[in-house]
Specification:
Order of helices and strands: HHHHHHHHHHHHHH
Distance between the termini: 59 Å
Largest sheet: none
Low-confidence stretches: 5-9, 17-23, 245-257
């Protein structure tokens, strides 16, 4: 929980003329929008700071709590995410997205029984959020339940034109090593949002796992052409280049072994 002790404003807030800053309405809803935008380009650290700042402005902001917990999950800080989601559930009893997040935390920490319990309760709540079903799909995939695909389809029906929900669905399949399905859904997200570097990056990851190395490199390059500062694609491309160099180095040895 020390992560939130010294939250600073982003650099872009500094150095602006005072009059310009006064004209902008930087309330919790502005911060939420900025946080969502950061999430959509995989800048989880920035999104976390912005969700936290939104909560500083309004501690009763449900979306701020959900966003904060989800960013901690994205950053792999499951223990801390568990602490914050429990605190949020003390305020918002049976909130479906918070329960769904709790189920994902339990699942990724290896407690599948509790993950199913929280997912069951989340799915019983009245909600129009696709995240409830995306999270349930992940839990069921992890437990080998055949109803996982049904939950994913349910998420798609709740938000049929939501490219980001489709992308997060693809990422769930990727996490669960269902790479063909992940690539299929990532392509659906791409049809809706061709300008997203995050979508191209996820496609590249899936293609790489499926042995489609040249296509994966093109996908990472496309992500960087859309955003030259997109660090995940840059790292993935460097990793792919190192792998190719390693293969070329040992290619003569492999040929000798086959003789």
């Amino acid at each position: 929980m020390t992560r939130f002790a010294n939250i600073e404003f982003d650099n872009e807030d500094r150095g602006k003329p005072e009059e310009s800053q006064q004209r902008e309405i930087r309330d919790e809803f502005f911060l939420l929008k900025q946080a969502d935008s950061a999430f959509e380009v995989a800048d989880f650290e920035k999104a976390l700071r912005l969700y936290s700042r939104a909560l500083d402005s309004n501690p009763n902001l449900e979306a701020g709590w959900v966003g904060q917990v989800r960013m901690l999950i994205e950053l792999g800080e499951f223990k801390e995410a568990g602490l914050w989601v429990d605190k949020a559930l003390d305020i918002f009893k049976n909130h479906p997205d918070l329960l769904a997040a709790k189920s994902v935390i339990c699942c990724r920490m290896g407690d599948r029984r509790k993950a199913l319990e929280f997912s069951d309760v989340a799915s019983m709540q009245k909600s129009s959020s696709p995240y409830v079903w995306i999270a349930r799909g992940e839990v069921l995939l992890a437990t080998g339940d055949r109803n996982a695909d049904f939950c994913i389809e349910k998420a798609k029906s709740v938000a049929p034109r939501d490219w980001f929900s489709l992308l997060n669905t693809a990422r769930v399949y990727y996490i669960c090593r269902k790479y063909c399905k992940a690539l299929e859904i990532a392509r659906e997200a791409l049809d809706l949002k061709t300008t997203s570097p995050f979508v191209w990056f996820v496609m590249g990851l899936c293609q790489r796992e499926l042995g489609m190395r040249s296509q994966s490199i093109k996908s990472f390059q496309q992500a960087l052409s859309l955003d030259r500062n997109f660090k995940p694609a840059e790292s993935a491309l460097q990793s792919s280049n190192r792998m190719n160099a390693f293969k070329q180095l040992f290619a003569p040895l492999r040929r000798l072994l086959k003789m």
